[in-house]
Design a protein that fits this description.
- The protein has 9 helices and 8 strands.
- With 234 residues, it is α/β, with parallel strands linked by helices.
- It has a single domain, classed as Vaccinia Virus protein VP39 (Rossmann fold).
- Strands 3-2-1-4-5-7-6-8 form an 8-stranded mixed sheet, with helices on both faces.
- Strand 2, helix 5 and strand 3 form a beta-alpha-beta unit.
- Helix 2 packs antiparallel against helix 7, helix 3 crosses helix 4 and helix 7 packs antiparallel against helix 8.
- The longest helix has 22 residues.
- The chain is globular.
């Protein structure tokens, strides 16, 4: 897995834009907004890749720290002064209860032990802190679902062959099969020590955000909700 991500690092951002038709940027902004943390908050980007979420966190006024296991992804990242650390998501080199939040973008389906990863997130986030997990999803609408499958199974591998690595972009669309269903993710997150879990679908199920609060702290103060047009709460 590390070798695959090292191989696609140089064109990773370009491929993300092509595959999502540019929607991934707005999804990342919504994942950061979903934290509902007052800036400046310390937020760890787990599996940060080339740093897209780190940049969104910085733009929102937060203090980001990026962690990824691919050295070439980290070397490709353009995140200014944001600290970047090479490490595994299941063993974060972060002190317990030292972060206000954690974000993770499009990585859950590539992690083999989600229970351990969620437990690590719970360890490093302070009580009352938040996590926001952004992942791909599968549209339920029949025609949209058909188009989604054709795009990911047929078109994306050809784009990979043209601009990056065909083998990697055959695997990545299919990796959604390794993502547990929403009920299982919710159970794992809750068992790790989070409460108040909410799941939001973006653009009729093309992507999803799972947000939850670390148990043990006082509830977050109410804040104006950001515009969530295009989202379907579930």
């Amino acid at each position: 897995m590390r070798s695959m991500f090292d191989a696609i690092a140089a064109r990773y951002d370009l491929m993300n834009r092509l595959i999502s038709l540019g929607l991934d940027r707005s999804w990342r902004r919504r994942a950061v907004a979903a934290l509902e943390l007052a800036p400046p908050s310390v937020v760890i980007d787990v599996a940060c890749g080339t740093g897209d979420l780190c940049r969104e966190l910085t733009s929102a006024g937060h203090l980001a720290v990026g962690i990824d296991f691919s050295p070439k992804m980290l070397a490709t990242a353009r995140v200014g002064a944001v600290p970047l650390v090479q490490a595994d998501a299941s063993l974060l080199p972060v002190a317990s209860a030292s972060a206000d939040g954690v974000v993770c973008g499009f990585a859950l389906r590539n992690l083999t032990d989600l229970a351990t990863v969620f437990a690590e997130m719970a360890r490093v986030v302070r009580p009352g802190g938040r996590i926001s997990l952004l992942e791909i999803d599968a549209p339920r609408a029949r025609l949209l679902g058909l188009g989604h499958r054709l795009w990911f199974r047929r078109v994306v591998p050809h784009l990979g062959a043209l601009f990056s690595d065909q083998a990697a972009y055959r695997y990545l669309p299919r990796s959604v099969a390794y993502l547990p269903p929403p009920t299982e993710i919710a159970a794992l997150v809750t068992e790790a020590g989070f409460t108040g879990l909410r799941r939001r679908q973006l653009h009729r199920g093309l992507a999803q955000i799972v947000v939850a609060t670390r148990a043990g702290g006082r509830p977050l103060s109410s804040r104006p909700r950001p515009d969530r047009s295009g989202e379907n709460p579930t």
